[in-house]
Structure formats: C-alpha cells, structure tokens
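This part of the workshop introduces the protein records we will be handling. As an example, a complete record with its sequence and its structure tokens follows.
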Amino acid sequence: MNENAPAPIDTRQVVTLLRKGWMVIVLVAGVATVVALAWSLLQTPMYRSTAVVSLNPVVGMDSVSGATVSAGAVQSQLDLIAAGSTADIVVERIGSPAQASAARASVETPNIAITGVSSNPERAALIANTYAEVYAELRRDQDLQRNNDAAAVIQELLDEADAQLVALGEDPTGNTPSTGAGGVAASELRTQQRTYQQQLASLSDQARFIERGRVEVL
C-alpha cells in the first residue's frame, strides 16, 4: 500500500459541506452581481460618431484602377489623419483634446471611416466632422504642393528648351517662321516644347480639381 497516495474523496462529506454553506455561496454570488451592476451603472456612457470620407483620387497622382486605391495609398492617408499635427489643429478648433480613430471603411472602396468618441453625443459628432474637415484641408494642401512642385520642374525643362532654340537662332514662341538653321536639333526641341506644354496644361487641370476638394464626406 502506498502511504503517500492521496486519501479518497468522501462525496458524502462534500455534499454535507455544500448543504451547510449554500447560503454563503448564494450570498457571495449575489454580492458579486450587485457590485458588477453598480460598477456598470456608475460608468460614464461613451458615444461614437463616424464620418466616412472618399479619397477621390486625381488621375496620374495615385496608383488607381477604377475605384480601387492601393493599400499603400490608403495607409498614407490614415497616417496623415493620425498625425500629431492633425490632432493639434482639431484641438485648436474644438477647444479641448479629442479622442478619435481612423480605419479603411471597407476593402472594396477607397473610403476611410473617422470615428469620434466622447461622453457627449454632439461632441462625438463634432470630433468626427472636424477631423474630416481638417484632413480634407491638409490633403488639399499636400496635393497642391506636389502638383506645384511637378509643374515647377516641367517649367524649368520648357525654359531650357526655349533657351536652346534661341541659341539655334529660332523663335521659341513660334510666332515667326523658322529659318531652318536649327535643323534636326530645332525640330526635336519643338517636340519637347509641345510635350512640356501639354504636361503643364494637365497639371493645371489637376490643380483646379484639387482646389475643388479631393475628399468627399459621404
């Protein structure tokens, strides 16, 4: 016989103990329930309000295919919304710190859901709407800067082509007939001119589109 083996459990003793202590068990369970209920009732209710915005991409400036925007493009916009500079502007406008989050609304659409959280439902809506407003402004400013930078580079190339035409004895404006002295080089420069002018016109159209607003609150 193994002296170290545990003694067998007497089920009759267990039943007897449970009968004697059932009131204590019920009382403890009841107290726990009351405490949990009281804690729940004492918590401040939190409200959530969500503003859904469309990225509305400009053709040629984002990697797009129909209504699909790349995951990287969406993430860059989520980073912009979550940036500290964005939060600072929101706080400046609504007057106090704000709790908010942003995530892609769905994988099928290029939309972002911005959610404001507050103990006041009207403030939750204000937070969501202000974040959407600030994001739209920052997105516009960023895209205009990118567009303007690209236009500046193209303008420099156009100016360089004009200067080379002048060096060849040609009128860069094309208002006077070509003397033909520039030969093939002048012809190639004229082609470059037209290409640069078309690119500048396209960038000008994109700038007008960006200024009208790329972010639409759905």
Summary: The first strand starts at residue 47 and ends at 54.
